[in-house]
Design a protein that fits this description.
This protein is an alpha/beta fold and about 425 residues long. The chain is built from 12 helices and 15 strands. Helix 2 runs antiparallel to helix 9 and helix 11 packs across helix 12. The chain is globular.
Length: about 425
Amino acid sequence: MPDWLALYYADPVEITHGEGRHVWDADGNKYLDFFGGILTTMTAHALPEVTKAVSEQAGRIIHSSTLYLNRPMVELAERIAHVSGIPDARVFFTTSGTEANDTALLLATAHRGGNQILAMRNSYHGRSFSAVGITGNKGWSPTSLSPLQTQYVHGGVRTRGPYAHLGDADFVAACVADLEDLLGHVRTPAALIAEPIQGVGGFTAPPDGLYAAFRDVLHPRGILWIADEVQTGWGRTGEHFWGWQAHAASGPPDMLTFAKGIGNGMSVGGVVARADIMNCLDANSISTFGGSPVTMAAGLANLTYLLEHDLQGNARRVGGLLIERLRAAAAQLPGVREVRGRGLMIGVELVRPGTDEADADAAAAVLEAARREGLLIGKGGGHDTSVLRVAPPLTLTVAEAEEGAAILERALRSVR
């Protein structure tokens, strides 16, 4: 495998199996999983309902491609269109969030007849050539070459940057003014793509309503709004089913992209768009593996479980307890700059004590210390990888939240 393949830990973990909120490695060590394969095991490891649906579908037929219909694909498309909030919605399935964002960019540029894209600073949208080209995080963008011309907008990071000192209303006003000024200097873009909460960027977010204010500027100019919900969708934030709903005052996005959690570990992604946008392509297109009968069966079973067990509500309740527990611990630790997030999407930003300088070494050390005590977490961040990312499966219990918080607190204390 390539040298640039990112692996966690000095001695990488080989995961062999999991159950609920726990996984085991090849040496028999048990871990409480607070990262879920990068927010992908959204419901639980080895969830019986999903496992059963995958097994039964695999026993009938595994693959057919989108050249043929299969019932799980049609049923899941109908359900996602219904819950998306987008009127007259159409759904196209892909195999990943990267491919979903690629598809959304294709649709936007084809519909608008231009290749200018607006993106947020500190953003991440995937690993493909076009997705890397719009990513506003240099740690995940290995080339400046791109088929798109991208302009970057302020606003995705509330507590850093030139507007950090402003109150929320003035922060939004300043970001809107920056957007309006930018639009005066470039050809009219096809779309703005934005994560409601930036994932790889360290779980940063603007004040509620920023993207609604942006939409008031964009919509009269015909500029589309793509909400990248690959990490924020399906109720993870607790307060909303979709991240864009914190910015809903000016209506839903024109497109949203999804992936990760809906398959609970199976490779599922996709785009939801208004029919006039989705149907704008004038050439044939298919997906060989998008809409696979097996992954669609998994997605259907997982979405049903999510809704029937109110996992959004659980994320709100248990996530609220977890974030308060971590904030209480952080108040006594000079190396923690901020604990932020919503629901079960929580970031702990580390700095060198007495400064505002990101401390990537401390983040790496905390990751190792937590692992030694049986807790798996993630990391991210913009200028440097100094944010611990906490995103457990949405079935997390109060007892597990307390256990994980205690381990993480000890790990934070151990590096000082």
